[in-house]
């Protein structure tokens, strides 16, 4: 793919538009619900904080998406960045919280919407009660995503060699990442104990099975496409994989949003704004070839995924502030970016020195 000439701000044009519309809608919602300038300003501020929270928690998601998208055909790239983002914004930020309440409270979808609008406190309580199985499911799925990246025999670029070199070497042992995840599931279930342990194990196993099913379906679908056309790569299977991955990333942000507000509609506005920035970052990373230029950026994202998965496990026992989760991932990605820049500068200097040393010496003919 040829690199785009679009400016950095150009990639975020639609994100800025959605931000303006979302904040206006948040202000209107705040005035209707409170009737005061102070209350409206508070809801406006919460929308901004939720957007920042979503961006900080999902920046590693954008990098992983870009890594998958760069191997997809332009047609499927376009489908993911249009239909996929609609599914991500409306599906995970609106439908998913409603679905949790529908299942947990055993009520209909319309009743869940009425509950969210008329009894936000009760709605929030149901969401928090469902946190344990959600964290176990999402944490397991993300852990498999992260471990599958590092347990890879073909991986030859290592950011932290003493960790990544042995993992790449042991990747020849079939199912080693599954064994690691199962051991962690057993460990955390022993710590939890009682009914919570049973809920944790079942939910975590569902997360593991979901990852394996998505991998199998994705492989079969993409294999059929490659049979039809040798140039067809990363089609429907990759699309499904990215959608499930985005859903797993969204679990933490959706649940964490209820710590700031119990209003489902404010949550949808704030997280929806953040999701648009994630989409813009994904497009920029793909078209500008950023992952190629910064060799360790991808590593930082997958380390952030692994840490997020462990945090989701730990959150089944006690609460960890979302700001810590977001800052932890952003810090790792920042360090990996800094390491990549240092690597690039070092090799530029080495190339310059090699060019100077290897330059042939010009010998002038002697004058007669």
The chain-level structural class is mainly alpha
- Alpha plus pi helix count: 15
Radius of gyration: 24 Å
**For the residues shown, what is the average pLDDT?**
77
Shape: globular
* Spans where pLDDT lies below 50 across 5 or more residues: 227-232, 356-368
As for the number of domains, it is 1
Whole-Å distance between the termini?
Answer: 57 Å
Largest pleated sheet: none
Order of helices and strands: HHHHHHHHHHHHHHH
- Helicity range of the residues? over 70%
Keywords: Membrane, Transmembrane, Transmembrane helix
InterPro entries: DUF475
Organism: Neorhizobium huautlense
Protein name: DUF475 domain-containing protein
What layout of secondary structure does this protein have?
Layout: H1 8-11, H2 13-34, H3 37-69, H4 74-105, H5 109-118, H6 120-129, H7 131-150, H8 161-170, H9 176-192, H10 194-228, H11 236-257, H12 264-287, H13 290-293, H14 297-314, H15 322-358
